[in-house]
Amino acid sequence: MSIATTTLTDWKLRAGQSQGLLIAVAVFVAMFTLYITNHPAGLTVPVVTTAANKAVLLALVAMAQTLPVLTGGLDLSVGMIFVMTNCLASAIVGGEPWQVALGIVGVLLAGALAGFVNGAIVVYGRLQPIITTLATGAIYYGFALLIRPVPGGNVDGDLADFMTYTVFGETVPTSLLALLAAVLIIWLPFRHSVIGRGCYAIGSAEGAAYMSGVAIGRSKLAAYTLSGLLAGLAGLMLTFVTYSGEASAPIGGTYTLNSIAAVVIGGTSLYGGAGGAIGSIFGAFILRTIDDLLFVFDLPPLWQPLFQGVVLLGAVSLGAARVFRVKNRLELFN
Amino acid sequence: MQALLKRVDKPVVIAFGFIVVLLLAGSLYSSSFLSANYLLQQLQVAAFLGLIASGVMLVILLGHIDLSIPWLVTVGGMMSTAAAGWWGPEWAIPFGVFCGLVFGIINGLGVAILRVPSMIFTLGINAVAQGVMVLHTGGFAPQDSATPLMRWLAVDRLVLGIPNAVFIWALLGIAIVVILKRTPLGRYIYAIGNREGATYLSGVNTRLIIVCCFAISGMCSALAGVLLAGYSSKGYQAMGDPYLLPAIAAVVLGGTHILGGRGTYLGTVAGVVLISLLASILSVMQMPEAGRQIIYGGVIVGMLLVYGRGQRVLG
Predict the structure, then answer these.
(1) CA-nearest residue of chain A to B124?
(2) Is B63 a residue whose pLDDT tops 70?
(3) Do residues A137 and A77 touch, judged by C-beta distance below 8 A?
(4) What domains does chain A contain, in order, with CATH numbers?
């Protein structure tokens, strides 16, 4: 086999593996084009910045959700870590520059610690992730309420304005750069590290991964901890967008549920082992653009929740096409 | 005695033991915790959670999960009161439960036929049910007050001061126990939870069983919604929101394995009473919401660490 054919099959294999991601990107581009062409203002920096600020929050939470899902787990507490770090940031990110910097580090550490606790209970306590994070989610929400019993607080105004506005001569939304930084600094190194590959292996077949010498515990711990860190980053961004903190159970619940939907739409298997955080980002973008589309097409507000629900249901059912292609029904049971 | 001990699960014993400890600890705080009136009051509140948990337990035994509980409860409450306004009060309860059944069947079809993971499909149905309810209330102002029968079922005490809601829970509980222990359906549910492929190869129509369980779960949630509407004398948006996590937690604390195949109804009863009692005691002690949430989550993790730990994966 010549080198040329090797790279070709390699390329085909890679395209096949990231089919979900490619579909998500295509759907997003189509939807966003539709949105921009129907928006009264068109493709202007403010329109894109507003869209980006909303979308980046969900995108970060969806990235956070992706890591546990890849290991075959699930994190039902991401939304609550998001809310908890939002409340924490509204309390400690302010004052002198060094205090702001220290506050940001504190917020991110708190997120990572919450994720680490999830991971430790799953790995050492050997409880199922879904029920563990259900319970720890309640605990993190309790901490959020402790920090902020009523909505309020504030955050360093200059920094918040900077993070929610634009850079490079008012062309690129800063929040998108923050998202890019999360991908470049957290996701890609993790994806290509031994531990990251281990997470994929665990999600595919935990027993086989163990037999192959994958450090199961360490990989899962890393996945949950980084998940908490990303959720903490999202909470920090939320504080920059709203300038305040609010311990809101509905916000936490909505983000948790939407993050799962975004992960699925982005082509990551809920059974683990396939997919990636980039797909989840586009899944999140798609979910956000649906809301924006409803706005520009002037759908009656009463119909919006139903329409969103049907679109969500349709999107997650797309994978069902596989069911009608299998020849042996036994392939379905795994 | 030895035989008896063998027959009851460790989780069930620990959960009931914890209930006794909670009651004793509560009675140190205030002696009214051991009064019959307080206990019956707790059972009445627990009955609503018990109805929901009964349905969701069947789904969890299959190895699936039903996250559409919040809005199916709301559908039950709101559609029953609306039906009373449209066609007369006798239609209220049947129509409310029927709507839950319809959504439950759609859940089942999505999971069994389309094979979408139940976690995400029921989530989608939850969103659709929410959309339908928003559309339902918007602009039309349908009737939202409960019928006298609904109020009577949820609030009144017919026999010996025992709330009627507890009788409904008991009847449903007996039905579930009979299904699980005495019918092929029950055997198939446990079998699917253990290994669906093997059950299918044994000639069982696994898809039908899955649809059945989701349908029952939808009906149970809607029935709870009907009674909750009776209890608060009206059906309103988001009335089911506080019930998702307690229902799943109650089932799991009762020793039902979250991945399916193992669990007893007695355990679910223990879990429901435990969760309701914990919430009640914390609220009587005027614990702030923050502390309640932390204790609530801590108790779930703590109890499961005692008896719910999984096997180590070794190849």
Answers:
(1) A313
(2) yes
(3) yes
(4) 19-316 (1.10.3470)
Interchain proximity B110–A211, CB inside 8 Å: no
Angle between helices B184-194 and B36-61 (to 10 degrees): 70
Cβ-Cβ contacts under 8 Å for B32 (sequence gap 6 or more): B38
A309 pLDDT above the threshold of 80? yes
Assess whether pLDDT exceeds 80 at residue A235: yes
Nearest to B128 among A130, A136, A306 (CB): A306
Nearest of B98, B105, B56, B22 to residue B251 by alpha carbon = B56
Cβ-based contacts of A139 with chain B (< 8 Å) = 293-294, 297-298, 301
Closest approach of chain A CAs to the CA of B61, in angstroms? 15
User: Could A264 and B298 be called an inter-chain contact, meaning their C-beta atoms sit closer than 8 Å?
Assistant: no
- Kindly list the distances between the CA atom of residue B222 and the CA atoms of A18, B163, B247, B277, in Å, as whole numbers in the listed order: 41, 19, 14, 23
Yes or no, beta carbons of B245 and A138 under 8 Å apart: yes
Instruction: Give mean pLDDT, residues A110-127.
Output: 95
- pLDDT surpasses 60 at B90: yes
Give the closest-approach CA distance of A255 to chain B in angstroms: 13
- Distance CA(B193)–CA(B31), nearest Å, equals 44
Chain B: nearest CA to A15, how far in angstroms? 23
Q: How far is CA A72 from each of CA A128, A198, B4, B261, rounded to the nearest angstrom? A: 11, 12, 38, 19
Alpha-helix residue ranges (DSSP H) falling in B113-195: 118-137, 148-155, 164-182, 184-194
Query: Residues B232-246: pLDDT tens digits?
Result: 888 788 888 888 888
Quick check: A225 pLDDT over 80?
yes
Task: Name which of A212, A313, A332 to mutate to probe chain B: the one with the most chain B Cβ atoms within 10 A of its Cβ.
Answer: A313
Among the partner residues B128, B138, B297, nearest to A302 by beta-carbon distance:
B138
Global confidence as pTM: 0.89
Inform me whether the pLDDT recorded for A199 exceeds 80: yes
Q: What tokens appear for A279 in the block? A: 């797909």
Give every CB contact of residue B229 below 8 A, 6+ residues apart in sequence.
B76, B77, B78, B80, B81, B96, B146, B150, B154, B235, B239
CB contact under 8 A, A143 and B294: yes
Query: pLDDT tens for residues B160-194?
Result: 778 888 989 999 999 999 999 999 999 999 999 99
Q: Which pLDDT belongs to residue A1?
A: 45
Residues A282-301 have a mean pLDDT of: 86
Q: How far is A272 from chain B (nearest CA, A)?
A: 12
Cβ atoms of residues A65 and A78 within 8 Å:
yes
Q: For residue B265, which phi and psi values (nearest 5 degrees)?
A: -70, -35
Residues B243-279 have pLDDT tens digits of 888 899 999 988 888 888 888 999 999 999 999 988 8
Q: Which chain A residue shows the shortest CA-CA distance from B67? A: A257
Q: How close does chain A come to B161, measured CA to CA in Å?
A: 35
- Residue among A123, A128, A147 with most chain B CBs within 10 A, to mutate: A128
Instruction: Summarize the confidence of residues A193-201 as an average pLDDT.
Output: 93
Question: Are residues B305 and A125, on separate chains, in Cβ contact within 8 Å?
Answer: yes
Subunit contact A313:B127, Cβ cutoff 8 A: yes
